[in-house]
Amino acid sequence: MQAIRVHEPGGPEVLRYEELPTPTPGPDDVVVRLEACGVNYVDIYQRMGLYKMALPYTPGSEGAGTVADVGAHVRDLRVGDRVAYCGALGSYATHHVVPAARLVALPKSMDSQRAAALMLQGITAHYLCHSTYPLRKGDTTLVHAAAGGVGLLLVQMAKMLGARIIATVSTKEKALLAREAGADEVILYTDQDFEVEVKRLTGGRGVQVVYDSVGKTTFDQSLNCLVPRGYMVLFGQSSGPVPPMDPQLLAAKGSLFLTRPTMGHYIATREELLGRANDLFEWVTSGRLRVRIDRTFPLAQAADAHRALASRATAGKVLLLPG
Ligand SMILES: NC(=O)c1ccc[n+]([C@@H]2O[C@H](COP(=O)([O-])OP(=O)(O)OC[C@H]3O[C@@H](n4cnc5c(N)ncnc54)[C@H](OP(=O)(O)O)[C@@H]3O)[C@@H](O)[C@H]2O)c1
Question: Is residue 25 within 8 Å of residue 100, measured between CB atoms?
Fold first, then answer.
């Protein structure tokens, strides 16, 4: 098998394409022959050393393909079944050993590329607006990086839930995509002061919830965009980590709630994983949710995929194809 390996943290150049022995499954595992591997921002934090990893490792935690081998205890999957998963490390590869409990069977209508594009970012968008702060009709929300992988999916789901959406993006092209996804208002936060714009667009009241994955450059001002008792949902740090803060600030700014959620805690049970994945598959199959694949790279060019994502050049999903 072939895989991308990281032997030391660093820039995209540390992603090395290597030959490894083809794995065999443990009793509760399945070997997936990958057809598409998702690239996510977390892969960059791990590669850089912002999130500590045991070395060496194979990056990537999302993929889709066919079952190539099953462990002795696995009952509900067979060789040849089509599956997808997220939250299992090691998907930048042609083959990946994944616990059977993490796999989701794919409906016939769902091709591997769309499935790999949907799992991690789709489940994230799903839990953010259905569980972390469940959006209701009449709520206004601020979604940062709204034309990103998570962003485009989150905007569409927020629309389905009846919220008014104020989106931020860095370019006019991305603004168009955010609007197509359902954003009611779009702010170019690289040109405009988003705090001033949010106040103007809400008649000075603010929004019920901010979904902020940008972090360092947006966090402080995002707190100022909330109504009293509003929810600050910090779920990433694409611009860099947020420095430590005094909790008293939450009182001063209106008894705000602050949460820093991560996907693993929202798909901790098989029921929750299947519930969210099946919603996503149903919405995509029925045409209610669109998945935008921005670009694909051969597996060996994982470094170029990381460069594209980190440079803010992409809008939607980036995939690696082991083909
Ligand atoms: N907590 C969780 O469970 C969870 C799960 C999935 C993802 N995430 C987080 O969600 C965020 C989005 O992930 P994604 O994979 O969908 O990536 P993405 O949103 O497609 O890409 C990141 C986007 O962030 C924006 N950005 C703003 N400042 C930036 C900077 N200085 N450098 C790079 N990008 C910057 C850019 O959009 P503009 O050009 O429009 O500014 C860029 O396109 C990441 O922070 C990720 O870690 C969290």
Answer: no
